[in-house]
Amino acid sequence: MTAAFSQPSVKAFLMWGFWEGAHWIPRGAMMRRDWSLKPNGEVYKDLVFKRWWTNTDGKTGPQGAFATRGFLGDYEIEVKAGGKSKAVRASLPKEGAKVECVLE
Q: 7-18 pLDDT, tens per residue?
């Protein structure tokens, strides 16, 4: 999965089944019949929701800008200052992006 994820032309993963109770090869499922995660399910969860997930906090510099690296995809960005907050949605394409969020 890591090799495929790092390839820019890969857009998605297709899983033929994930639950032991309905998988054509039950031992290949990520979840047991009681819905608990098997070791391969734990690895999937760690990769997708931790290692490949951009979750960043930071502060702006003197110019009011903040920069970070992120994985390609869609984001919800929340900005807070002086008791105010604002959320904006943005996409990060392979060529990069700048997002402006003004608190009023």
A: 888 888 888 889
